[in-house]
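Worked example 3. Consider a protein that binds zinc ion.
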Amino acid sequence: MRIFDPHIHMSSRTTNDYEAMYRAGVRALVEPSFWVGQPRTSVGTFVDYFDSLVGWEPFRAAQYGIAHHCTIGLNPKEANDPRCRGVLEVLPRYLAKDGVVAVGELGYDAMTAEEDEVFAAQLELAAEHELPVLVHTPHRDKEAGTRRSLDVIRESGVPVERVVVDHLNETTVEAVAESGCWMGFSIYPDTKMDEDRMVRLMRQYGVERVLVNSAADWGKSDPLKTSKTAHAMLAAGFEPAAVDRVFWANPVEFYAQSGRLRPETPVTAGDNGATFAGNSIERGSR
Amino acid sequence: MTPHPDPSDLRAALRERADTSGMRWLEEALTRVAQRRSAIGTLFPAAGRECARGTLVEDSEEPRAVPRTWTCEDAVRALLLTALPLEGAELGSEVTALYRYGDAAEKRGVLRGLGLLRADEGLVEAGLPLVRDGLRSNDTSLVAAALSEFGASHLDAPAYRQGVLKCVFLGIPLRDVAGLPERADAELARMLNDYARERSAAGREIPADVWRIVDPPRFHPREEA
Ligand SMILES: [Zn+2]
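Given these inputs, the predicted complex is written out as structure tokens:
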């Protein structure tokens, strides 16, 4: 079984996770830029973070045979801190990078006026750079936040087929299904969505335009949730082809709209890392 | 000796790899950069997507102009650097910005491309901090690129030795490191000898590359009294 995790924050994970993910079939992933659990207070720390998303982290992933791509953006939580606003000015530099396959995570946290501004500005950047968009829906007041996000997306003029609205559940999926945007689901140990509920939703809504991710990060989360959900699908009677559609073909189709996705080669490793001088890079103690 | 390519070698190698539209993109990009320096900001990251990517030359034991570690993107980026209508400190600051905001592949392109530029005082002053940044990284491709032509020619002896030791440590083949025949000295041999002794004391394998610098009969497995 080959798996593409369309949303996972590997910077917060260990090499053991990479190993376990590879064993479970994960061969490609997208790491969205998001908030790191601790507020950042300057543009410089974002720049270093973006650098690691287009440098160090793809290198690390390649060592475990996994292709790493990322999304770049100013997240809604930190959009509220005026000290971070300058991040918008450095974004175009990063949106030009090979490994960047979408703008994100964007959207709302507390639905403030600042979040509105930053969301709209970045949708404009996405249109300019012809990149897909990853939209995060809020943990609190989720339904209203999802509807408001869909309104903003419609107004932006970014084509709906280039947008995924993520972290959906039973109460928010309907509106997104109708909008024409892609539907993203994060399978978490306790919150958001679990494997069996996910299987029920796919029975109801089908597997078209559906992206299922682990969204694993520094909090309580599980990088193998993609594989566990895939097995739950099989156990519930879904055909292997449907499972492959959800866990490979769909994320490939969505992110390939960037024109930069290379899911078969560990990114940068194809250029240097793993094939570097024909040498395995796993050896040597660092 | 590690080969040392010039722009015509890189062009020739690229012609073997890139298709017609890729080569056309390259020629146009070079013209645009020559006319306006700021054009390089968007062309530099696009090198792989627009021109060609992957291995530039086949691996071979034969001596040749282009080192086997160069990728097509590296060659495109190096050529773009040579097209900049700048020199000295001005060229240095442009190159520094490309490195600062570059992804791993762009940083590598800068480190390799520096060797094709005229190394006057201004450029060396700007380029050396980039080489040191590359050497501090744990990304093997950056460490290796830092020890290509420019780094090998301009690093001081202690930094060059530390770089070579790091290569052995990370498993980067020394045949891909520039400058060794001229710069490998007794102190480097001493450092590698110590490293080999530490490995052997821990019951671990000694990387074969150590013997490129350390003469096996002179290897001391134990500290001498
Ligand atoms: Zn996330």
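Take a moment to read the result before moving on. Residues A 7, 9, 32, 34, 105, 215 surround zinc ion (CB under 6 Å). Confidence is low (pLDDT under 50) at residues 267-286 of chain A.
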